[in-house]
Design brief:
Length: 193
Amino acid sequence: MVTIGVLALQGAVKEHLDCLNALPEVRGIPVKKAADFTDIDGLILPGGESTTMGKLLREYNLSQLLIDKITGGMPVWGTCAGMILLAKTITGENIRHLGVMDICVRRNAYGSQLDSFATSVVIPELGATPIPLVFIRAPYVESAGANVKILAKVDDKIVAVEENNMLATAFHPELTDDLSFHKYFINKVIKRG
């Protein structure tokens, strides 16, 4: 049994937990305090409001704990706001949250909530079938370091990346019925284990 924590401070926590718990041999649990991080094999940083999540990480003294866990090799996947939390640089802002992934992201890159959209693309690492991608006030990656693998682009914008034990997507797989990305992350966790 693989246990995956979902950071439960704010955002799409239930949706990720539902996806995880739909997979065999996987248990998804909410995590929100330091003690919750001891029994997990991997962590999802969900979509939500990155500024609020970053503030709560600092208020609950979880930032350094997460940085240590991630730099120590714990698999982590950030979706939308989670991608922003992981990024070393945020365009136009002098703040960074965890700053562990060698990417520069642009917040709300596609515009407001009204500019949200869905599309489908083939991501070779996940298979030959197009998978649905849902973008809601989404970021994208403006630049990525030499060790960052680009998994997907939409309209020439980088929307999914991987670096060592870290995975980040600008879109919300948890808002679709497709579990491909959750399975991909679980396989990453199992390989690490």
